[in-house]
Amino acid sequence: MTETAENYDATKYERPSVTVDVVIFGLRSGRLHVLMVQRKHWPYAEHWAIPGGFVNMDESLEMAARRELEEETGVHDVYMEQLYTFGDPGRDPRTRVISVAYFALIRTEEQALQVSDESNDVCWFPVDELPKDLAFDHEKILRFAIDRLRSKLEYTTLAFQLLPKEFSLPKLKRIYEEILGEQLDKANFYRKLRDSDLLEDTGKLLNSRGRPARLYRFRDSRIEGDFVFRYREAKKKDEQ
Amino acid sequence: MTETAENYDATKYERPSVTVDVVIFGLRSGRLHVLMVQRKHWPYAEHWAIPGGFVNMDESLEMAARRELEEETGVHDVYMEQLYTFGDPGRDPRTRVISVAYFALIRTEEQALQVSDESNDVCWFPVDELPKDLAFDHEKILRFAIDRLRSKLEYTTLAFQLLPKEFSLPKLKRIYEEILGEQLDKANFYRKLRDSDLLEDTGKLLNSRGRPARLYRFRDSRIEGDFVFRYREAKKKDEQ
DNA sequence: GGAATAGTGTCTGTTAGACACTATCTA
DNA sequence: TAGATAGTGTCTAACAGACACTATTCC
């Protein structure tokens, strides 16, 4: 009676298509941007969209997402995590398409963009100046991704993935402020970082208009993944 | 060259199957349980599995998950959220199957189970006494769900979804302890709840062996969703 | 009264948040 | 020296965590 995995005949049912879409975040001139591609063909020709594509039968979802990312930007070995799966019927006018969305954080200054055959253009947009009329439900996906990035920033070291290997505290602080949309207290922010033991002094200084800033790097053990760091409300818990 | 949504011919590629699997949590005698079904047919005949099934072409993912939940337990209108999408090739020996996993929290005392045609049996298992050799990658999905439930418990009111409408503070505390696997201080826990203004005194008392406990209910506005409540580290932030 | 459970009062160390201060560079 | 930016010292209110206490029931 009920259709379940138990009595399924692989050829019996119509199947949806499955894509991965990747929201790619990067900093440009200290502002948070996302990478978008402009579509060439129906549906939503000329509209901007999040890069993505179909999942091959022999690759995992994450492999598919990394492949798309590399095709679009040439980057690999970056931080990436699964965001959410969007599957409302009708979100794609062609056929039922279920999209597994990922988001990636990249160090933009190290990257050059490449326009693929399938798009007119590739472009970075500041997250608060997105183009109008995005393709499909990509506006929703993007909002979802930005919300997630903000909330993860509050208790992880994710933001570090956006920075160059060596950076100053003022720069890190500006990034937190940019993403959170909120001013932070310098003294408290620095103290928090010092106490967290996440950073390592490189000894180098970076000249600017005023006093030069010390350059730091992340301690090796904590560079990857999302080691707990709360920019407020330090947490002691040892578990997890 | 690249395959993207832009030049896709809906009939051109082989498509994966898409299922939803639902991890159903409930309390039984104060312990956290998950609902599992015992499979009848190949593959993994006789093995225990998370209830799930194929997504119909005209229903959303969440609708599919709710349908599966209702078929398996008869419940509806419960808390449910998308967990993660598992899609490694080879996770199902029949064909490529991508599974969108959900988790649901139900008030078990209100429910009677019904065994579907496709399973030998349906059963609640305590989360720390799961059967061996679960079907597919369901062990992984289950661990994922338990971790997520634990971590969400620390900053949301999710646990309340497991409780009856009216309950005592000692009972709520025991549930937190059961799920977190950690003893909490009574005075601090009660104080936290009082200050949070989440609860409403029903005026009723519940008799037990010692002094009777006051019964509370959640304030209407906060019953649904996951209003912020940290069982430790109260947070003031007004945003979100 | 004693056992069992429910519920409260209060001290202490930690720390987030505020803000005034000092330091080091360039022009 | 002034302007600009980097970085520090320190006070205070809030609160998590600890723990001893009181309250109300049943036997």
Automatic annotation (TrEMBL), chains A, B:
InterPro entries: Nudix_hydrolase, NUDIX_hydrolase-like_dom_sf, NUDIX_hydrolase_CS, NUDIX_hydrolase_dom, WH-like_DNA-bd_sf, WH_DNA-bd_sf, WHD_NrtR
Keywords from the UniProt entry: Hydrolase
Domain of life: Bacteria
Gene3D superfamilies: Nucleoside Triphosphate Pyrophosphohydrolase, Winged helix-like DNA-binding domain superfamily/Winged helix DNA-binding domain
GO MF annotations, alphabetized: hydrolase activity
Domain named Nudix hydrolase: residues: 13-149
Residue runs in coiled coils: none
Pfam families the record matches: NUDIX, WHD_NrtR
Family: Belongs to the Nudix hydrolase family.
PANTHER family, A to Z: ADP-RIBOSE PYROPHOSPHATASE, SLR1690 PROTEIN
Protein name from the UniProt record: NUDIX hydrolase
Organism of this sequence: Herpetosiphon aurantiacus (strain ATCC 23779 / DSM 785 / 114-95)
